[in-house]
From TrEMBL:
Cell compartment(s), UniProt: Membrane
InterPro entries xrefs: DoxX (IPR032808)
Transmembrane in keyword set: yes
This protein's UniProt keywords: Membrane, Transmembrane, Transmembrane helix
Pfam families xrefs: DoxX
Protein name: Putative oxidoreductase
Keyword Hydrolase applies: no
Record organism: Candidatus Planktophila limnetica
TM region(s), chain numbering: 6-24, 44-62, 68-87, 107-125
């Protein structure tokens, strides 16, 4: 199961590492989108969300402070779903459907990250259960 856990971790983390890098590489375009969605302090929000995605993804991928990484990701994707994908405000049917898909995706990813956070922080999953890792997999538990 170590191989399955490692593959799952890497696949989950890759999405957020890539997204975090994208936030920095396309900072101006993403800031413009955040302004369009009326996010206050848009550039700061893009920088913080990019940092949370990047750190969270790296922590999960390498197996260091996985609970902290998962919590950073959960906070970011759940807030992004609510702020950026408010499908209930859309009047155009296609736009509403696209925003609802993005909203549901963000909530599902946030839910998965919260499960990972809870399993690691509670000690239900320990380092020996988590597959190859560097350092302590938990930031919050002893």
């Amino acid at each position: 199961m170590d191989v399955v856990t490692l593959i799952g971790r890497l696949l989950f983390a890759a999405l957020f590492i890539g997204s975090g890098i994208g936030h920095f590489a396309k900072l101006e375009a993403m800031t413009g989108y955040a302004k369009y969605k009326k996010l206050p302090a848009a550039k700061f929000g893009v920088l913080i969300s990019g940092l949370f995605f990047l750190l969270g993804g790296v922590y999960i991928a390498i197996g260091l402070w996985v609970d902290l990484g998962a919590l950073l990701i959960a906070i970011t994707v759940i807030l992004a779903g609510i702020i950026f994908h408010a499908f209930w405000k859309e009047t155009d049917a296609t736009a509403k459907m696209n925003e609802q898909i993005a909203f549901n995706k963000d909530l599902a990813l946030g839910g998965a990250a919260l499960i990972l956070f809870a399993l690691i922080a509670s000690g239900t999953i320990s380092g020996s259960d988590f597959g190859p890792h560097v350092g302590n997999i938990s930031f919050f538990s002893k």
